[in-house]
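Entry 0007
Protein: Protein-glutamate O-methyltransferase CheR
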Amino acid sequence: MVELSNKIAAMITFEELEEIIEVVKNLHGYDVSGYTRSSLKRRVTRIMELNKLDLVELKSKLINQPGFSTYLLQEITVNVTEMFRDPEFYKALKNDVFPYLETYPHIKLWSAGCSTGEEVYSLAILLKEAGLYQRSFIYGTDINTKVLEKAKRGIYSLAKVKDYSENFIKTDPKSSLSEYYTAMYNAATINNSLKKNVLFSQHSLVSDRVFNEFQLVTCRNVLIYFDTNLQEKVLDLFYNSLCHLGFLCLGSKESLINYKNAAKFKVINKKHNIYQKIA
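Output (structure tokens):
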């Protein structure tokens, strides 16, 4: 497998990667040209390794095999996620943002690039503990329909959820995480009470438009896979999706420093990249 990996990696040039990008765009209508080339090359190489394909075979499957393009896009867009990832961020959310959210009669939140839903349910639990869930509605979106199906089910490995409990404890909660799921055999199912004000749906940050006005938008550790131009486009989307004085939360390695509309945001928490739209 190591020899195969080296062979494939050596065969794929950035010029050839552009060919794959064009095939996907022209035949299937999804533009991945805004993803960083290093990230795309890693992921396409991994797909070729797993399927034992060279460049010609990969292009052939994309053109001729139904469903292969969907598979490729799903593999390209898979993101790593977990419940209460970066617990200090969730503490900052409770302390710095929730006091503002309490002033709204209805609260709309958008988790963009939500993957398999762990962040959405983390937000739901946090809102529940703050007494805000009943007047909140959370939209979880992703381009990847495969991960969205898992998010809708809300069923996770019990071993993983026990690890998530360690994260949750660090957020200074009022209760145990076990109160929010039902364990059966080796699986944990998120309680239906946390699903009733949640909607998961497909949405492309690359090509889709604003679909609502939100008090809070979170998109953490997604922009790092995009080039500068696409980051700018996506940040415009978030800006236009936020109500006046709404909040934007980015990942630990992301910020608004180079964004053209950065002056229209106030820094609420510099360490955890939490911003408030002020203009």
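Curator remark: The chain has ten helices and ten strands. The radius of gyration is 20 Å.
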